[in-house]
Predict the structure of Xylulokinase.
Amino acid sequence: MYIGIDAGTSGIKAVLVDEAQAVLAKRTVGLSTRSPHPGWSEQDPADWWGALLDAVDGLRAEQPAAVAAVRGIGLSGQQHGAVLLDAAGQVLRPCILWNDVRSSAECDVFEQRFPDSRSVCGNIAMPGFTAPKLIWVARHEPEIFDAVRHVLLPKAWLRYRLSGEMIEDMSDASGTLWQDVGRRRWSDDALAATGLTRAAMPA
């Protein structure tokens, strides 16, 4: 038995499948998005966790024996969002989502600080990506930026809550503007352009 979890922007979806990939149960728990200013889009990671627990509880209510026999959990989810954690692993502020455009000016700052970013990171800097969001936080919420010790994407944060491990996959890492896509590793220059080091990145 296996559980698949999709952490989407509009909701958390969970599906229970058997070894033949037959769907035994599925649940969706909706999420709300906050926009305190025009162009802003935020969610509280605690809401994702609560929705995940509710979704899995729904699977358990329908298929208790099958859920008890689960051998693994797979995750997919929205990219680019910035979950900022302090030294204790606690969330510092609501997650700035992929569709948040507040960091448009910071995209120019990023490319000015790291002129080779397009060739190294494989993308034009856009506000949907993660790196410009951190420059925005540094400029507008410096007390929060100073407390940042780890930056995770939404799916990686849920994995952290489930397992205690901070791990990112190569695909999602490529959407942060911090990955050297040719060398398939974090770029020290890209991180420096946002005031961070590899110590803040997941494995």
About this structure: The beta strands are 2-7, 11-17, 23-30, 42-43, 72-77, 83-85, 95-96, 150-152, 179-180, 185-186. The chain has two domains: 1-77, 79-203. The chain has a mean pLDDT of 96.
